[in-house]
Recover the amino acids of this structure.
């Protein structure tokens, strides 16, 4: 069934490409794992509208939401190889490919969302953008994804001790695997689309994410204990295949960059509203939110930093992030 859906999406892509040629308009394809209406999906649609308007219709963007083109890891390969031109994904699945992407994925490195914005909007954000070019990608924008916290079907979490022995799905990054191990629990990295059924059938006890994902992926139905430990403030990344970007005229490149920048403001606004909406929705549906003592979680992260922040470039970046006020 899944393969069927992918095949159908592939045919659809081919069809839209042919329609493109006929109308002399280049339609760029963008993937997103989230459903229509999710802040990232809407932000990329908005980016597409701006690009279309500002290039007088020479370029348009089709957003394939709801993982129509596959799970995040697969679509990253698609955008790197140029099968698709654009992709909106989390920063974490790049941790094994782009060394610098590790920094924003480190637990409790950012003190707040404001701190994260300052860092990503400044020199460190630019340094990470430069590093993505080595992976054949141009970063058009960083978007908000709030903070990630653990949720599970077994029990409320009030301290690190409560995490012991629980099995969590984590986003596909070694940092997250080691973070969970450091908390005395077990981590299984798996595609986002498999999480709901894995919790339901008991393969795992829970996962970790922000309120909008917990809500829209319906994980709150199967894992009711949400502990607001806020272990990462992990940004999203909106990328373009570098060869496709390089083919644009310098004027069009500026249009794309500016449209992406404009879409950031839009996404941040939509994001803030969605967090409140989702939180209210899951609480009304019976999710129990606890606020564990964060210091215990922070203290437990020492081995994660010792293992992953050994490279001098990363050490310097971490210091630079900490110095941003
Ligand atoms: C969400 C993020 C997605 C995806 C997902 C996951 O917060 O927006 O891009 O990475 O988490 O956990 O797989």
């Amino acid at each position: 069934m899944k393969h069927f859906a992918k095949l159908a999406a592939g045919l659809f892509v081919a069809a839209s490409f042919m329609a493109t040629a006929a109308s002399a308009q280049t339609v760029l394809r963008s993937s997103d794992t989230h459903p229509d209406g999710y802040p990232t999906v809407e932000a990329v649609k908005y980016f597409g509208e701006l690009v279309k308007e500002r290039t007088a219709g020479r370029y348009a963007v089709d957003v394939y939401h709801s993982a129509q083109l596959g799970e995040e890891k697969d679509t990253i390969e698609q955008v790197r190889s140029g099968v698709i031109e654009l992709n909106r994904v989390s920063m974490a699945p790049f941790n094994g490919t782009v060394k610098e992407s590790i920094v924003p994925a480190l637990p409790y490195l950012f003190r707040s969302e404001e701190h994260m914005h300052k860092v990503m909007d400044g020199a460190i954000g630019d340094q990470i953008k430069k590093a993505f070019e080595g992976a054949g990608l141009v970063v058009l924008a960083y978007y908000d994804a709030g903070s990630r916290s653990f949720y599970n079907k077994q029990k409320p979490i009030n301290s690190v001790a409560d995490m012991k022995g629980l099995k969590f799905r984590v986003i596909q990054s070694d940092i997250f695997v080691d973070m969970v191990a450091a908390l005395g629990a077990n981590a299984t990295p798996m595609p986002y689309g498999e999480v709901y059924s894995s919790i339901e059938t008991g393969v795992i006890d829970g996962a970790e994410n922000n309120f909008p994902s917990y809500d829209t992926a319906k994980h709150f139905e199967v894992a009711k204990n949400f502990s607001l430990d806020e272990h990462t403030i992990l940004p999203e990344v909106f990328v373009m295949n570098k060869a496709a970007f390089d083919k644009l005229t310098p004027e069009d490149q500026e249009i794309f960059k500016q449209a992406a920048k404009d879409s950031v403001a839009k996404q941040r606004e939509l994001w803030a509203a969605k967090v409140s909406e989702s939180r209210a929705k899951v609480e009304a549906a019976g999710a129990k939110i606890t606020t564990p003592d964060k210091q215990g979680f922070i203290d437990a992260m020492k081995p994660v930093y010792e293992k992953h922040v050994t490279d001098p470039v990363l050490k310097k970046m971490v210091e630079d992030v900490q110095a941003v006020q």
The pocket of beta-D-galactopyranuronic acid is lined by residues 33, 72, 89-90, 145, 171, 192, 209-210, 213, 236 (CB under 6 Å). The chain has two domains: 20-144+235-273, 148-233+279-323.
